[in-house]
Design goal:
The chain is α/β, with parallel strands linked by helices and about 270 residues long. It has nine helices and ten strands. Helix 2 runs parallel beside helix 4. The longest helix is centred in the C-terminal third of the chain and has 22 residues, at about 165-190. The structure holds zinc ion (ZN). Zinc ion (ZN) binds near residues 95 and 155.
Length: about 270
């Protein structure tokens, strides 16, 4: 009976499944991209992952022989400009430039010797009390382990702005948010800034096109799926990490058992 059912299921799958595509995006791998925000000894808010939980994540990845790869490696591959990432690859990002990236995350990044991408909105740097300074960001960059990329200039809620502003003003705001962030980060920290994390994950076709015009080659949401084909390059998904992501939930995320249905084509 089991064998019969298996045969039925298999034949249905063969019948309904897509024809195998040659040299298509289907050949490319999907990678979980994790995004953290804040670290600390205790959970201060919903965006905090305690330093010990974060350390447990890194240890889990090491124990199970996962490789933390630079986000750039994945982007290059998805753009057809680089080799596929190794099997069991994971990407780690942190958004917003919180001071705990410097005080809590940096020692662990050094200890585990992993590449990390930070998405920064420059208006906060050396300005907001919770944020890092430009000197600290440069120090992170100089370790060779941190890549600094853009999270727009001041982290606007682009849905709210769109309702508030006339089209001309909205256009100007969007251009400024994309271009100024890129220019300031490149000038203050150095390196090429051409990756964008959408504030609050908000994005649409128009924003994706404007970001491309401003020089971005890939952008990231907070939708809970692995990043790979057939996702849109300007809306690549990432898993928003919270402190409740203990060993079991972490394993489910990494192995793809915690994915939302998708992909959304925006
Ligand atoms: Zn953010």
């Amino acid at each position: 009976m089991v064998r019969f059912l298996t045969a039925v299921v298999l034949s249905v799958m063969v019948f309904l499944g897509p024809a195998p595509a040659k040299n298509s995006a289907d050949d490319k791998v999907s990678v979980p991209v994790l995004v953290y925000h804040r670290f600390g000894p205790a959970v201060a808010d919903g965006m905090t992952v305690t330093t010990s939980v974060f350390k447990a994540h890194l240890q889990w990845l090491q124990d199970y022989q996962y490789t933390v790869i630079p986000l750039r490696t994945l982007v290059d591959h998805l753009r057809g400009q680089g080799p596929p990432p190794p099997p069991k690859s994971v990407v780690i990002c942190t958004d917003d430039g919180h001071i705990s990236v410097y005080t809590q995350m940096l020692p662990l990044v050094r200890q585990y010797n992993i590449p990390v991408t930070l998405f920064i909105y420059p208006s906060a740097i050396s300005n907001a009390s919770y944020a890092m300074t430009w000197d600290q960001l440069r120090e992170l960059k100089q370790t060779g382990l941190f890549d600094i990329q853009s999270h727009t200039y001041w982290h606007p809620n682009l849905n709210k702005e769109k309702k508030k502003l006339k089209p001309d003003a909205m256009q100007k705001l969007v251009e400024t948010q994309f271009k100024k962030s890129k220019a300031v980060l490149e000038q203050k920290v150095g390196g090429q800034v051409d990756l964008l994390a959408w504030p609050f994950g908000i994005h649409d076709d128009y924003l994706g096109q404007e970001a491309q015009k401003a020089g971005y080659v890939a952008a990231f949401t907070i939708e809970r799926r692995h990043a790979g084909p057939p996702e849109a390059i300007m809306a690549l998904p990432r898993y928003l990490m919270v402190n409740a992501d203990g060993a079991k939930r972490f394993e489910a995320i990494i192995t793809g058992r915690a994915q939302e249905k998708g992909p959304k084509t925006y």
